[in-house]
Design a protein that fits this description.
The protein is an alpha/beta fold and 263 residues long. The protein is built from seven helices and ten strands.
């Protein structure tokens, strides 16, 4: 088995997640690939951000989907981390990335590199995010069969089974990963609030959704499965310069061609 190292949201321990600096550092570190999350702006641009809202990772506030790309460019997406950005990694003003900008960075790696794209959804699934992404990739020469753009091998993943099903009708299973929650009632309760009964009820719903995802893997709809501790409660620490740093939830993932329905 070949083991590859993917930088989750770029080198997000060294620099703010999803930023130009984080991805340039990941390439410098020799990562085999990188991971990113995508959201659509109000004017239909694909930006690299994890959260639906801007509050945690910028000096802005409110939903990403209500801002145009130009409005997002006015925000600071890196200073919250507390790391000083080297001049060769850009300035504070150009740390926000679009998908085409990330692909341009990866194209400059001078070697084969992987890109794992995660599609994130709230309470409702809509194919618009996926379709915009695939259209953007097609303009750069991507085809579903090879799933390559230049030196970049691209794969796709989501926690949402409906998103994976939608992708499976358009992309070979070899390039698809069904993400599965590692569900802990205590962490769920911390994340959603409302007390133990609410936490148990939410965890039950999440386990049912996970079972659907497990079936997709076992039925061969998705080739890979990847659990992640996405239900942990984010914490804050104080950097040396006194700024607050939001610590992301655990990002450990594994892959396997088949999983047990009793996991």
């Amino acid at each position: 088995m070949t083991v590859q190292i993917y930088a989750h949201r770029g080198s997000s321990a060294a620099y703010a997640e999803h930023t130009r600096a984080a991805y340039l550092q990941a390439l410098s570190d020799g990562a085999d690939g990188v991971e990113c999350d995508l959201h659509l702006t109000a004017d239909g641009e694909l930006v690299l951000l994890h959260d639906e809202n801007l509050d945690r990772t910028s000096n802005g506030t409110g939903p990403v989907s209500t801002k145009t790309l130009a409005q997002l460019r006015q925000l600071d997406f890196s200073s919250w981390h507390g790391a000083t950005i080297p001049a060769e990694y850009g300035t504070t003003e150009n740390q926000l990335l679009t998908l085409p900008e990330l692909l341009e960075i990866l194209a400059g790696a001078g070697r084969p590199i992987g890109l794992a794209i995660e599609f994130k959804y709230g309470t409702r699934f809509s194919p618009r995010l996926i379709e915009t992404t695939l259209a953007t990739l097609r303009r750069l020469g991507w085809t579903p069969e090879a799933s390559v753009v230049g030196n970049i091998q691209i794969s796709f993943m989501s926690f949402r089974p409906s998103a994976v099903k939608y992708l499976a009708a358009r992309i070979p299973r070899a390039h698809l990963c069904q993400l599965l929650e590692l569900i802990d009632v205590e962490n769920v309760t911390k994340k959603f609030g409302g007390g133990p009964l609410v936490g148990q009820a939410v965890a039950l719903v999440m386990r049912r959704a996970r079972a659907v995802g497990e079936k997709l893997v076992n039925d061969g709809v998705a080739h890979l499965a990847g659990p992640a501790s996405s239900t942990c409660a984010p914490t804050q620490t104080t950097a040396k310069n006194g700024s607050k740093k939001a610590e992301p939830c655990g990002s450990g993932r594994w892959i396997a061609p088949k999983i047990s329905p009793f996991a």
